[in-house]
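Pilot study result, target chain (248 residues):
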Amino acid sequence: MRKTFKKYCLNCNTEFEVTSKNKSKKFCCRSCANGYNQRQRFTEDESLYCDGLNSFNSYVLGLIVSDGCLSYCKHTRRYRITITLNDLEVIQAIHDIWTPKKSIYTYNKSNSVVSNNACDIDFVQKMGITERKSATIQMPSIPKQYFGAFLRGVFDGDGSVYVNKTTSNGKFYYYVNCSIVSGSLKFLEQLQAILKNDYKIHSTINKDVRCECWSLRVRVKSSVKKMFDLMYQDGGLCLMRKKNKFNL
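Predicted structure:
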């Protein structure tokens, strides 16, 4: 009978058996070996939020709330923040400031930045961002001077601009509308209240019959103009293809 020895995994501390031929084995499985080695190579990313909010990181926070995610990697035993967009220019700008030591991750037409900065992860968790947040996210507390930048981030993540066309007396009339979609009704209701009370922007919320999500829609011309001015007044980073569709 082959003699076996008991060892403890260097990564997860699980007991496993080895033979005399592989007595030097340190890990119970390949995943634990990869996770341990990743931690040894770990490089801390730059921080966006340790000094509080500003215009740029409020925009990034809007992207995290809408099109980003917080996840836990069991192998590295760390949380990470991921933002994914099709638009490389915005991802590149965020990458150069936030994660310059890492690569931009590309899959099909999507581009992603991933940060594991401990300070930033703690910050977004305190702002109410959790794993699988889509249906539970609520409106974080944003200082008024940065609310427009935050809203622009939310809009670039989950917003859209579209044109309605009507006819009257043989003439065509075009109306620019905009909307923000979310799986959290509570988030949209809170956002709607802020837009109405602080900025006199009127909107409606409707359920999307195709899926479990809701849409906040701004249709009134004066409100659309106010929404545009609020989001783009600071001239900060944005998806130009969405901004240009307003055509106001």
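One observation from the pilot: The chain has a mean pLDDT of 89. A full batch analysis is planned for the follow-on phase.
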